[in-house]
Amino acid sequence: MSAIHPVAAPVEGQVRPHFRNLPLRVGTRGSPLALWQTRHFLSIITRFCPVLRDAKAFEEHAIATSGDRIQDKRLADIGGKGLFAKEIHEALLDGRIDFAVHSLKDLETEMPPGIVLACTLRREDARDAVILGPRCGTPDPSDPFAALPAGAVIGTASVRRQSQILHARPDLRIEMIRGNVQTRLGKLAQPDGPAATLLALAGLRRLGMEERASVVLDPDSMVPAAGQGIVGVTARADDVDLLELLAAIEDREAAAVSRAERALLAALDGSCRTPIGGHARLLSDGRLHLTGLVARPDGSFLLKRSAQGAVADAVALGRDLGEGLRRDSPADIFG
């Protein structure tokens, strides 16, 4: 039977005890990257709450999601956004876990009823990276796609990445590859594998594999996915004590940029077949700069715009930019 312990939650510089059952059960996907992110989050929360430094204070629950189980189809063909969180959130609502750790870009913009995005952690580098295989030339940071041979096959399941690389290099061909980071990198070494692939630099860094990045792409030339590089934690909306604890460890900058990016995504309301990018950053004067992108998967149409505003207006900034992009894009893009 679980023991009941006081769980300290910081409140305006003070520590107020809450009593609840331990261990706290944390849900996560089972990939190496997902487990790294979960353990990183737990290391942060234990620094804020000394009571939870006991090794038995947490219990990991690796949950296989639909997105993990089905690897031979695009996400759009098996149900779309949220497939990396659906089963995890069912476990949360059923009370089998207490909270869950996710890559924020995997979460739908509207949470299921009864679940909230409780906190976001400091963003790792949001940029995408090109990983070149042995059949490619020498990378040139000033011309990131120059090392790709004419007509080369690029492996990716991301229509966002596909649209932007085809817009820059229409001669290239796209082949769908899915799986965890290690699986996708392994395919480059296969004789019949793609010439190159694209991955989030954040994932490579977290796994200690940053050296595999041949070229890191500027976020203005390859607009990242909304939420890329940010870890988000979800919990039940009625778990007030836990929400209070999680709010205390939220990174304010990550919260601001993610609000803007997710509001942009919500305003565009695209499916997994719609290439959408969103990247926000804080400027030196404290204002928020947001870039949004909408495109066709084949790269034949690409619309990219930026806007700036106050951090307090992050949601309105994202919504307004998204509505403008949607209004000025061909209707078939969102069909």
Your description of this structure?
The termini are far apart. It is globular and about 60 Å long. The protein has helices spanning 32-48, 66-69, 86-93, 159-168, 181-188, 201-206, 240-248, 252-268, 314-327, and strands at 3-11, 14-22, 24-28, 58-62, 99-103, 115-120, 128-132, 153-155, 173-175, 196-200, 215-216, 231-236, 276-282, 288-295, 302-309. With 335 residues, it is of the alpha/beta class. The strands form four sheets. A five-stranded mixed sheet has the order 4-3-5-12-6, with helices on both faces. Helix 1 (32-48) links the parallel strand 3 (24-28) and strand 4.
> What's the Cα radius of gyration?
20 Å
- Supply the helix-strand structural class: alpha/beta
Give the overall shape, derived from the CA principal axes: globular
Figure out the total of helices: 9
Distance between the termini: 52 Å
Regarding quaternary structure, what we see is single chain
Strand arrangement within the widest β-sheet reads 4-3-5-12-6
Uncertain runs are 8-17
Concise structural overview:
It contains nine helices and 15 strands. It is an alpha/beta fold and 335 residues long.
